[in-house]
UniProtKB/TrEMBL annotation:
Gene Ontology CC annotations of this record: cytosol
Segments of this protein annotated with the region Disordered: 1-48
GO molecular function: RNA binding; RNA methyltransferase activity
Domain of life (superkingdom): Bacteria
Biased composition (Gly residues): 8-22
Pfam family membership, one: SpoU_sub_bind
This protein's record includes keyword Lipoprotein: no
Boundaries of every RNA 2-O ribose methyltransferase substrate binding domain copy: 49-122
Keyword set, alphabetical order: Methyltransferase, Transferase
GO biological process: methylation; RNA processing
The protein's name: 23S rRNA (Guanosine(2251)-2'-O)-methyltransferase RlmB
């Protein structure tokens, strides 16, 4: 199955003082006044909007990321060039208020706004033989998914499976929460998660579902490769069909009074518990 990682914007026009480009009209796509873009997952031609230091700097450093438009304040451009050297795209020099108008006043953009193409994603058949994957079963909150992506990048996860429906777009809030992780961990969008898990099982992947009611404690599972860790939405947990596609269901063994965690925290604990000794 052909998959995609995250969606193109249009270039600006005109030049301002110092050779920087003036904003050439409002960007196209899911952004809106009154809040940063989250947007439902759209078609493959939808723009990807990245803002904030880490998402934008990591995208500029990633040669695979095709760039379309960069809006930046003077201070942000100075910091970028100091960190990265010559930029792959000519910035349009703007005031912070211009970015606020696109994202809303609450977005922490740090003077940086980037439109780009989505990154390519591998097919399931192209994943490394000893890959460690995550699979997200209808986790819809962009902050949680972004935090999971960031953690996955820290632990060398080869890819994250999400569904075409019931998952946030890899843009705006989600990309900001991922803090640059989208450049290192592909989001592999599949039509049906159960079918993807079945396919991975046929390839030898151990499918480990995280379930707070499971009999097996997570720390007894041990590192396995190749493997896919399956995470369910908070409250609902794993769907029945998803559970049936797992080889083992495991729980985090809590010792305190609170017996549940935010799903992104649970993902971090699980990845640490199942890490290989050499890492």
């Amino acid at each position: 199955m052909t998959t995609r990682r995250d969606g193109p914007g249009g270039p600006g026009s005109g030049r301002g003082p110092g050779g920087f480009r003036k904003p050439g009209g409002p960007p196209r796509g899911p952004q809106r006044r009154g809040g940063p873009p989250t947007g439902p997952r759209g078609g493959p031609d939808d723009p990807v909007v990245l803002y904030g230091w880490h998402p934008v700097a990591q995208a500029l450093a990633n040669a695979e990321r095709r760039l379309h438009r960069l809006l930046a304040t003077e201070n942000a451009v100075a910091r970028l060039t100091e960190e990265l050297g010559p930029l792959r795209i000519e910035p349009e020099l703007v005031r912070p208020s211009a970015i606020n108008a696109l994202l809303g006043p609450d977005a922490v953009h740090q003077g940086l706004y980037l439109e780009a193409d989505p990154l390519p994603a591998p097919d399931l058949d192209d994943l490394p033989a000893e890959a460690l994957l995550l699979a997200l079963d209808q986790i819809t909150d962009p902050h949680n998914v972004g935090a999971i992506v960031r953690t996955a990048a820290a632990f060398g996860v080869a890819g994250i499976l999400t569904t075409a429906r019931h998952s946030p777009s890899a843009t705006g809030v989600m990309a900001k929460s991922a803090s640059g992780g989208l450049e290192h961990v592909p989001l592999i969008v599949v039509r049906n998660l159960a079918e993807a898990l079945i396919e991975l099982g046929a390839r030898g992947f151990t499918r480990i579902g995280l379930d707070s009611e499971a009999e097996t404690a997570l720390d007894t599972v041990g590192p396995r490769r190749p493997a896919v860790i399956v995470l369910g939405a908070e409250g609902k947990g794993l769907r029945q069909r998803t559970r049936e596609c797992c080889d083992v269901l495991a729980r985090i063994a809590f010792t305190g009074e609170i017996r549940s965690l935010n799903v992104s925290n649970a993902a971090a604990i699980t990845l640490y518990a199942l890490r290989q000794p050499s890492t």
